[in-house]
Structures are given as C-alpha cells and as structure tokens.
From TrEMBL:
The keyword Metal-binding applies. It comes from Cucumis sativus. Coiled coil: none annotated. One of its GO terms (molecular function) is phytanoyl-CoA dioxygenase activity. This is Phytanoyl-CoA dioxygenase.
Length: 269
C-alpha cells in the first residue's frame, strides 16, 4: 500500500483559509525524546571555536561564509546575547546556542529518520506535492532569557521556486506559548503573495525590497503543546518574539519545496 493523504477536508480548508495549520500530537513522546537526546549529544561534541552568531534582525550582516556553508552540513549558531563584553560566553554553550542547521535531515540519522517518515509524506501529498524534498532543517532552542527575536517574514523569500512551493513544518519539542516565544502569524496573509526575496549575488546577500511595516494587532499567537506540528504556507507572514522567560522553547523545523514542475532559483542563499 502506498502513501496516502492524511489531512482531512476541514484541516485543508483551515490551512487554505488561514495560511497555517496546527496538527496536535504529530510527534510521539518517544520521537521527541529521541530528537532532544540526540541534540544533547551533538552539543556535547560541539567545538565552540567553529560557529557563528545568528540574527534575523541583522540578517544581511550576520550571513557569513559559515552560514552559507551550513546548507550542506550541521552547523551551530549562537544567540546574539550569548556573549559578554569580553567576548566570552556568559554561560555554558548548551544555554547559548540559537539553532543548529541546516542539514540535520540529511546527515544525522535520528533527524533523518523522523524527517523521512510516512506521516510527513502523507501530509505533503495532502497539500498537493508531487515530488517534495526537504531543503533545510533546523533545531531551534529559543534559550531562556536570551532567545532571539525572529522578525516578520515569509519562507518563500528565502527558499524560492518558480512557481513558489515552500512550506514550513515547525514541530514543538516543548510547549510553546506567549511567555516563552511561540509563533505568531497574520491569518490569510498568504493570499497577498510574496513581498520580497532574500538574494545571493556577487556582492553577498541582500533583500530586493525593504521590509513592510506590519500592524502588531494583525498577528495571532499559535500556542501549542509539545509534539504539535505547525504547517506554514510559504507566503504567510509569521514571526516569534524574544524569549525573556526562564523556560526554553525547543523546536525542530523543516522547509520543503516541490521538485516537479518547479524551478529552484539559482540566486537563493
């Protein structure tokens, strides 16, 4: 028996209307435990001398060679506020990392096994994908007290195909709420199309348009329990705020594009 679609008509209707969808209990407690344990192991072996700082607030300035090369390996990125004035970490590395990416789904057996599971295939089949491929993956920590802000953006800006096909798959590995930095989105904003692109050229990376100004009142919080998956349309405007709470907000994120009838843009980052 082949892969079968696993979204209901009500779920699809909500997704197409709002631009996002929450699927509760998408990951089992055992799967969550396996991914968190695996990341703990990876962090233990991480050499702090090879890393970078990640920021969406200053994305053009912080996109260095280390970041660009991370598309094809497993790389570690620190929080902006992880370092003191002396240039040293304020606390242990496990509480200083912003994220690990961008090819966990390719090179780590635990994350690859989960990312290649049939439940993802059924979900993508429901969304109309013909030949989906995960183009990047991230383990996001949203550290207590210093977890960085992710500014309003669209995933299609960074992972552009013609026609656009990017979908974000954001799995909560811990409860995510308005206190510890959950996702926020503007319902229906995907219907307005792509606002701008993040391009890579001879002189580095840059946005082709300035960021629009968004009304904070248009955003709604997406509070979820650990194990819930948030499916995000590539054109929906979404963000998350800085985590100033004493509790982390771990998540595993995949971004998927279609490879049938679509062309990958050569000027993607």
């Amino acid at each position: 028996m082949g892969i079968v679609p696993n979204l209901t008509s009500d779920q699809l209707q909500f997704f197409h209307s709002h631009g996002y969808l929450v699927i509760e209990s998408f990951a089992t407690p055992d799967e969550i435990h396996a991914m968190r344990n695996r990341m703990e192991h990876l962090l233990h072996g991480f050499d702090c001398s090879t890393s970078s700082v990640f920021s969406t607030v200053n994305q053009q300035q912080s996109t260095d060679d280390y970041f660009l090369q991370s598309a094809e390996n497993i790389s570690f990125f620190f929080e902006e506020k992880a370092f003191g004035e002396d240039g040293n970490l304020k606390q242990e590395k496990e509480l200083s990392i912003n994220k690990v990416g961008h090819a966990l789904h390719e090179f780590d057996p635990v994350f690859k096994s989960f990312s290649d599971s049939e439940k993802f295939s059924g979900l993508l089949l429901s969304l109309g994908y013909k030949r989906p491929i995960a183009i990047q993956s991230m383990y996001i920590f949203k550290q207590p007290g210093i977890g960085g802000e992710v500014v309003p953006h669209q995933d299609n800006s960074f992972l552009y195909t013609e026609p656009t096909t990017c979908t974000g798959l954001w799995l909560a590995l811990e409860d995510a709420n308005t206190t510890n930095g959950c996702l926020w989105a503007i319902p229906g904003s995907h219907k307005n199309g792509l606002v701008r692109r993040f391009l890579r050229g001879d002189k580095g990376v840059y946005f082709d348009q300035p960021s629009p100004t968004y009304n904070k009142k248009d955003f709604v919080p997406i509070e979820v329990k650990a194990g819930s998956l948030v499916v995000i349309h590539g054109d929906v405007i979404h963000q998350s705020f800085e985590n100033q709470s004493p509790k982390s907000r771990h998540a595993y994120s995949l971004h998927v594009v279609d490879t049938e009838g679509c062309v990958w843009a050569q000027d993607n980052w």
